[in-house]
C-alpha cells in the first residue's frame, strides 16, 4: 500500500515537471520561430533594424528602445503602461494590430500558441 502512494506521488511530480517545461517553452524551437522575425528584428545584440532590437525586451516599456522611430500608437501604449512581459508579448505576438492599434509592425502575428511559447523562451535568453 505504501508503495502505491509513493508511485502516485512520483507520477504527479513527473507530470507537473513536464507541464512546467511545456509552459516555459523550448528556446531552440523558438530560435526557428524567430526566423520569421529576423528580417526586421535582432535579439542577440542591441542594434535596431527595420524594427527595434529585442535584446532585453522583457521589462521594457513599449515604445522606448533608444534610437528607434516608433509609431505614435506604440509610444502611447508605453505611456499608458504597456511593459513587455510573458503575457503582453503573448498577446502582441498573437495579433500585433489588436494589442496596439495603429502599430506600424506589418507582421500579422503567430496563431500557434506553442510557437509563441517557444519564441518567448528564445527571447528570454537575451533578457538576462
Automatic annotation (TrEMBL):
Transmembrane annotation, as ranges: none
Select a single GO molecular function from the record's annotations and give it: heme binding
What's the name of the protein? Cytochrome C class I
PROSITE patterns assigned: CYTC (PS51007)
Q: Which residues form a coiled coil?
A: none
Q: Which PANTHER family match?
A: CYTOCHROME C
Q: Please give the organism.
A: Rhizobium grahamii CCGE 502
Query: Pfam families, from UniProt?
Result: Cytochrom_C
Which N-terminal residues, if any, form the signal peptide? 1-22
Q: Which domain of life, per UniProt?
A: Bacteria
Could you list this entry's UniProt keywords, alphabetically sorted.
Electron transport, Heme, Iron, Metal-binding, Signal, Transport
Q: Which residues form the Cytochrome c domain?
A: 25-127
Keyword Iron included in the entry's annotation:
yes
Spell out the SUPFAM superfamilies in the cross-references: Cytochrome c
Amino acid at each position: 500500500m505504501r508503495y502505491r502512494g509513493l508511485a502516485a506521488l512520483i507520477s504527479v511530480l513527473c507530470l507537473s515537471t513536464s507541464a512546467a517545461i511545456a509552459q516555459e517553452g523550448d528556446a531552440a524551437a523558438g530560435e526557428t520561430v524567430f526566423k520569421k522575425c529576423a528580417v526586421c528584428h535582432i535579439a542577440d545584440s542591441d542594434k535596431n533594424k527595420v524594427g527595434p532590437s529585442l535584446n532585453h525586451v522583457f521589462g521594457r516599456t513599449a515604445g522606448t528602445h533608444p534610437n528607434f522611430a516608433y509609431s505614435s500608437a506604440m509610444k502611447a501604449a508605453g505611456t499608458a503602461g504597456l511593459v513587455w512581459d510573458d503575457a503582453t508579448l503573448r498577446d502582441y505576438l498573437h495579433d500585433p494590430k489588436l494589442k496596439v492599434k495603429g502599430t506600424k509592425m506589418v507582421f500579422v502575428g503567430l496563431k500557434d500558441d506553442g510557437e509563441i511559447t517557444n519564441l518567448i523562451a528564445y527571447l528570454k535568453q537575451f533578457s538576462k
